[in-house]
Amino acid sequence: MAGKNSVDLAGDPRVITGTRVFAAPRALVFSAFTDPQHLAQWWGPDGFSLTTSAFEFRPGGVWRFVMHGPDGRDYRNRVTFDEIVPNARIAYRHDDGGDDIDSIKFQTVVTFDDDAAGTTVTWRATFPDAEARAFVIREHGADKGLLQTMARLDDYLATGLKTPGN
Predict the structure, then answer these.
(1) Span 117-134, pLDDT tens digits
(2) How far apart are CA 17 and CA 95, in angstroms?
(3) Does some domain include residue 52?
(4) CATH number where 128 lies
């Protein structure tokens, strides 16, 4: 079952839940989330690249980054880490770092669980309301982007977390 993606949109209308089983040990999968050099190799949908300007992987810490789209558009992001349980759980709040009325805001909990085939990772993003979730799906393809992001992480894990130049 390793490598199988799923995205659940049928449950809570405010939530996007993505799950994938990775053929890698939990500590290795978790470590892909802990360093901006690793995150730059896989975070985001196909065709996107990532530039990190700040990264404090600790409760209360902030990760500021820009996702560069294949169309040349830049998307500012800010993640504030609320909880980090090594090899088990990361909880964070996401926004675009701006004060725009259309700012995309949501809370995410990522869990890491042992699986016979490796590690099951579940992303559960909760939006303020159903319309906010519908907006990110309609305007940004968030459901498809999550599937692509999980596949990119799987590809990166297959390298053993080797960043360019290593």
Answers:
(1) 899 999 999 999 999 999
(2) 18
(3) no
(4) 3.30.530.20
